[in-house]
Write a structure and sequence with these properties.
Length: about 210
């Protein structure tokens, strides 16, 4: 693991522990697990730190699995560029703007993540982006800000859907994340001031 991702991985472990502790307090309520891929569809934006983490995870895959994931990612990128033909490498989400990126995600909302294998399991689960770790629980921050549960199948699990927002020090996490993004931007783009760069998973996986 390179230094640019070490602090970020530590940050993600905080999120994972929070999630695990809540699951332990509510046994049998939270369906989120490796192999559930309900939320692993459609493109979404990921940060510079997520890109570096994904690259490390991809490098650990057997060559055949890496090649198959790249093929799936290239197919998704072809669809994206049919919708947005002017969107080119490095596929910075900011180049599209919020409205066009939202339209792109809506158009491809049913497309599975290219890193799902035939069984629907994430091939780089330990290296998955932060959004993949946060999507399945409602959260309330120390300052009272609430993030709703975004799980698309929560209506199938009434106790899960009814779970109250769980306390998490989101502001502290975001402060550490900001530092991680600057370090990652320096490693990825050669410019720490470009920490706001965001792209999509398929663009990372499709890289040769």
């Amino acid at each position: 693991m390179q230094p640019a991702t070490l602090a970020y991985q530590t940050l993600l472990q905080r999120v994972d522990r929070w999630f695990e502790q809540i699951a332990e307090r509510h046994p049998g309520v939270i369906p989120c697990r490796s192999g559930c891929s309900a939320c692993c569809h459609g493109p979404f934006d990921i940060s510079t730190a997520d890109v570096l983490l994904l690259q490390e995870g991809l490098a650990l895959l057997p060559p055949a699995e890496r090649a198959a994931a790249r093929d799936r990612a290239e197919a998704i990128m072809e669809q994206m560029q049919q919708i947005e033909p002017g969107w080119q490498a490095p596929f910075d989400v900011r180049a599209l703007g919020e409205d066009r990126f939202d339209a792109l995600t809506d158009a491809l909302a049913a497309e599975p993540c290219p890193l799902l294998d035939a069984a629907g399991r994430c091939q780089v689960y330990a290296h998955r982006p932060i959004v993949c770790r946060l999507i399945g629980l409602p959260m309330v921050s120390a300052e009272g800000n609430v993030l709703e549960n975004a799980c698309p199948i929560q209506e199938d699990f009434p106790a899960y859907a009814a779970l109250d927002p769980q306390l998490f020090d989101l502001e502290s996490l975001e402060a550490v994340e900001k530092s991680c993004l600057g370090t990652a931007a320096e490693a990825l783009l050669g410019d720490s001031s470009d920490a706001g760069f965001e792209t999509v998973i398929a663009a990372v996986v499709a890289q040769p």
